[in-house]
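Input chain follows. Return structure tokens only.
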Amino acid sequence: MGMMDAHYRGREGFVHRRVAGTDVLISVGANVANFNGYITLNPTASFLWDVLAQPRTVGELTVLLTEEFDVSPEIARKDVTLFLEMLQRNAMVTVYEDA
């Protein structure tokens, strides 16, 4: 099972808020001890986080991104991959290998 087959879902305990015109992910609840602060999201990252409320594959996320934004599949896939890597580094996403 590689990254392309896995399903990803945003973890509970992080909320997407708009603060002073900027989209941010803020840690709430038990996560505050592990992740003190917030991550700023650009428009594509904000969109991806919102659709990660449901388990999604890299392929699904790429298609959704190309439908929402005027980007090529290649650029969309790169954005998706980078965003998922950032979420994984910060323990902000759940990965289902056998979904």
